[in-house]
Amino acid sequence: MGSVHARGLAANPDAELRWAVDLDLPRAEALTGEIGGRATASMEEALADPDVDAVLIALPTSLHRMATEAAARAGKHVFCEKPIARTAGDGEAMVRACAGAGVTLMIGHVVRFFPEYMRIKEIIDAGTLGRIATVRGSRLCSPVQERSPWFADVEKNGGVVLDLMIHELDTFCWLFGDVERLFAHGLSFDPIHTKRDYAVASLRFRNGVIAHLESSWAHTTFRTSVEIAGQYGLLRQSSDDATTLTLERTVALDDALTRPARVLARPHSVSSHEREVVHFVQCLKTGAPVGVSGEDGVRAIRLGNAVLDSMRTRRPVFFNEDGSVREP
Ligand SMILES: NC(=O)c1ccc[n+]([C@@H]2O[C@H](COP(=O)([O-])OP(=O)(O)OC[C@H]3O[C@@H](n4cnc5c(N)ncnc54)[C@H](O)[C@@H]3O)[C@@H](O)[C@H]2O)c1
Fold first, then answer.
1. DSSP classification of residue 233
2. pTM for the structure as a whole
């Protein structure tokens, strides 16, 4: 994600990429060799640069708090990838650190910047579907641990729930408000299925909406879908429908192509990741509030951890009106 954001910044006339920071220095050097900026393995070196205004954090999830607090101490604005952190407590500390330093904090819940979801929000807010009854959201991909081993440590980084389901948890709160209770099943703590992960959760929102969420690191290729049923009709979106050409391969053809691949021809010219960072930069320029706040990130991670708790304890989780977990 760091290189995705760096490329987006390089194409943004309102921003300049000053540094690419990665412990894996050759990785950072390869990127800056291609798009400009300087490479370093030292976060401190980049944060000491007075010409740096803001930092985009795309580190493994368990490091988000450390990096955000370091950036806030250096007086830099922060865009941090989702999930905000491993725990709600860490997320709250990040919100406090940024507020205390007077810097902006935005969380990369990119789904809110997908044109389809922006339109879904408009349709629901306009009352076109009437009262919403049920919603289904699904986000499926191949095992990411094969690409980046840090994802495999569920205790440290939260598995498929904090990687994929967090998107639906955030988006559905954005659309439907607060959650009253939830229940989940999954493979995140299963001793046999260690190479894959899968989770399914059902949520009841305070406004009565019932949601079914499914997330997987056990499929071959990336696909998402959402279905919203209301009083006056049904709204559906599937990433497959936006695909004009599909090639799915489960077997490697040569050494350079070792992962399942799917060729997508999407009709959008600007990626949603680029759009969210353009938004962040615009907010810094104008002083407007960011579209996804640190508090939004905390709300999503609290739900994500409740899903993991429900999976582990096989019990439902209930929430108080302030969003905190109600003790049984
Ligand atoms: N919004 C999205 O669509 C999306 C998609 C993928 C990942 N993400 C999020 O982005 C974050 C990063 O995920 P990724 O897939 O890019 O991971 P990745 O493993 O591809 O990249 C992480 C990078 O961090 C570097 N790194 C690790 N520890 C470091 C340290 N202490 N100092 C400097 N560099 C260090 C690694 O060398 C690696 O290059 C995660 O929080 C993930 O949840 C978001």
1. E
2. 0.92
* pLDDT tens string 105-139: 999 999 999 988 999 999 999 999 999 999 999 99
Structure tokens at 229: 């049923």
Which of 3, 4, 59 is the pocket-test mutation for ligand 1 (most atoms within 8 Å of CB)? 59
Question: Domain map of the chain by residue range?
Answer: 2-109, 111-239+293-318
Structure tokens at 33: 């060799």
The alpha carbon of 82 and the centre of ligand 1 are apart by a number of angstroms equal to 10
Q: Could you tell me the distance, in angstroms and rounded to a whole number, from the CA of residue 323 to the centre of ligand 1?
A: 28
Q: Render pLDDT for 31-62 as a digit per residue (tens, 0 to 9).
A: 999 999 999 999 999 999 999 999 999 999 99
Which uninterrupted H or E stretch holds 143?
Answer: none
- In this structure, the residues whose C-beta lies within 6 A of any atom of ligand 1 are 1-2, 21-24, 27, 43, 58-61, 63, 81-82, 108, 110, 148, 150, 163
Q: What are the CA-CA distances from residue 163 to residues 3, 71, 153, 170 (Å)?
A: 18, 23, 12, 12
Place 255 in a pLDDT band, splitting at 50, 70 and 90: very low
CATH code for the structural domain at 2-109: 3.40.50.720
Q: Which residue's CA is minimally distant from atom 11 of ligand 1?
A: 58
Domain 111-239+293-318 has CATH 3.30.360.10: yes
Q: What is the DSSP letter of 254?
A: B
